[in-house]
Amino acid sequence: TGSPVVSDVDVGSTAPSPSPKSPTSSVESPTAKPSVDPTKSPSSVKTGTSSPNTEPTTGPTYMPSSWNPTAFEATTAPVPDGAVYYDGFEGATFPDDPEWSNAGDAPWELTTEQAASGTYSIRSPDLSNEQITPRSSNVTLTYGNASFDGGTLVLSVSAGVELPIDDLSYFVNGIPAGQMAGQYGGFETMELPLDPGTNEVTFRYRFNPNGLDGLQPSSPNHTGAVFIDDVYIVPSSVATDEFFDGFETGDFSALDWSVIGEEEWTVDETNPYEGVYSAHVRTEDISASGEYSQLDLNVDLPAAAFVQFYFYAPVADPFERFDLRVDGQFLRGLSTEDETWAEGGAFLPSGPHVVSWRLARNPEGVPDAALEAVVPLPFRTGEAWLDNVALLGATPSFLEMWESGDFSANPWVLSGDGDWMITDSRAYEGTNSATISSQDMEVDSGVSELSIAIITEQGGKLTFFVLPSVSGPFEEGNVLLDNIKVATYSSPRSDWMAQEIDIQPGKRKVTFQFAKNPGNVDPSQLELIPSPPGKEGAIWLDRIEFVANVAQS
Prior knowledge:
Layout lengths: L5 E5 L35 E4 L11 E2 L22 E3 L12 E5 L4 E3 L9 E3 L11 E9 L7 E10 L5 E7 L2 E6 L7 E7 L4 E9 L17 E11 L7 E3 L11 E5 L4 E3 L9 E5 L9 E10 L3 E8 L7 E7 L2 E5 L8 E7 L2 E11 L6 H6 L9 E11 L4 E3 L11 E5 L4 E3 L9 E5 L8 E11 L3 E10 L5 E7 L2 E6 L7 E7 L2 E11 L6 H4 L11 E11 L5
Antiparallel strand pairs: 1-34, 2-12, 3-4, 4-14, 5-8, 6-7, 7-14, 8-13, 9-12, 9-14, 10-11, 10-13, 15-25, 16-19, 17-18, 18-25, 19-24, 20-23, 20-25, 21-22, 21-24, 26-36, 27-30, 28-29, 29-36, 30-35, 31-34, 31-36, 32-33, 32-35
């Protein structure tokens, strides 16, 4: 995997001040109310350039998950496999398409002026007027139903707008998701994560959005129009039936288990990770050098997923070798050198697979006399145990703004010497943020952690806003990726900081850590050190967004 990348962007004056209910901008929700719960979290935007095409496209069209874009007539837009909705506007039926609706002072319209691919796109109306009266126009895409599990809306946008003359704002289920103003250079690819259920995504073009009495001359690149093309939706994932087997049945009946080689794997009570039972195999039960006993798990996945397990394997070459295999191919060796269990796993693409745990006796065929002369390492017992085998589905894109008032909206894990909590004393956006302070920790020196596991096939990006009011040696804030520090905060800030982390494919653990007295300085000595102005001994965290990368065909 590649190295994690963390970028530090000083939000400065453009960020809201650290006060309750601070908005990100002057953007207000569109007047048309969404048909879904507005407290549901939308997610904001990821943009990148895309090259325009001239070949025609066709749409709107609903496709099954097995739809192959290469077989879709006259389509050149990069629509990925699995798209469940696509509209390139080449059917020339807008604005009569049932998924689209107009509202405001004038409607959006079909046009041939610009297109990311094909001939047609839709564009915002000309709202300019001699009286420079503020005007606005909304176009809304409604998609989803009770069976929609969420996903990503992908579209091409060209916004020749410029504040204070005009701007483009976009909303997911009535909540601001972003704004474009002063961005030129052709079409850009925008990705907006969607919630489960019905979603309403609104694009609002405004003329004179600040209601000024006079407007400055526009730049040469200002067109006063927004163009949208090649709109498609990719579901978060095809439903994956997650499973778990802790062997508490006392046998291998819970899943599609089988044993090949010598049938020496058993389920017993000798050393469970949790509960009463675990799977167990011993070198001494394997008949001869070069032989092995292998426990196989057969799975057939409709979508990519991660198989996770725990193992305890005090084994050592040349006596034996314990390893993990997928579809007959060696993946990695498994061993432990102390009395603690370890976590293992592998990411599996969709389709049928065989996941295998093999214990081989003297796999290199060392002669018996030479083997007897080898002094075994102190930890070696020549056994392996397996427990808590689970299949975990991929993490969908999400936005965490703590509007639930707790940590229940996403699978957060709290641990350490003090608990993070939700507060309305400060917020980057909305009402709440997550926070932890030294006063919340009764120990003189310790850490408190807020963690989340992210599982992806293609990787993605995690962005968040942090407001540290800490100072060494009193306290320190850290962000860890797979237990490796990728960001540290050790001085107080008066404004929020935007941060971004690249998430590599596989299973990753992101941890937000607050450390009190990280150097374990004697408290009596710590009291003699003056605190810098503005330090509150706390840290705040808000608007955590994960956008999973979308596989392109």
